[in-house]
Amino acid sequence: MFNNENQVKHFLIMKKIIPIIIFLFLAFHTSAQEVANISDPRLQIKLPDVKGDSVTLASLQGKVLLLDFWASWCMPCRAANKKLVKLYDKYKEKGFEIFSVSLDEDKGDWKKAIAKDKISWVQVNDPRGSWNAKTAADWNISVLPTTFLINKKGDVVAIDPEGKDLEKGIKELLAE
Fold this sequence. Notes:
Elements: H1 5-31, E1 46-48, E2 54-56, E3 64-70, H2 75-91, E4 96-102, H3 107-117, E5 122-125, H4 134-138, E6 146-150, E7 156-159, H5 163-175
Parallel strand pairs: 3-4, 4-5
Antiparallel strand pairs: 1-2, 3-6, 6-7
C-alpha cells in the first residue's frame, strides 16, 4: 500500500487532519443554514395512506413528530418498527405522532409489513417507490431507515435519534 516511509507519515498526518477539516466545515456550513421546517414547500409530503386517502406531513404540525422513511424489504427498518411501536404506544396520547413514508414499490408488501409489525400510526407510500421517490430526493434520503425528530413548530431538531436519545428528545419536546 505504501511505497516508502514518507507516504506512511503523510497518511498519518492526513488521518488526523481530515476529521478536523470536516468538523470545521460542518460547524460553519450548518450554522448558516436555516432549520428545515415541514411547512417549507420544498419539503412538502402529500401521499396516499393505506386506504388511498391523501395525507400531508404539514397537517401534523403542532404535534411532536417523528418522520420515518422505511421499506418492508429493509430489515433494519423492520427491527426499528418494533421499537417504534412501543414508543408510539407510550407517547401518542401526550401529543406524539409518527408519519412513516414507505419507499416500497409493491403496495402489497407494504401493507403486509404494516399488519405484521402492528403499526398503528400514519403510513403513506410514495407510488414512485424506492430511490426514485420524490420524497426520498426532497429529504435527501440515502439510507433506510432514516428518521427526523420534529418539534411542535415543525422544525427538524434531530436526524436519526435512537433509543434513549430519541425518547429523551420526545419527552423534552412534549414538555415545551
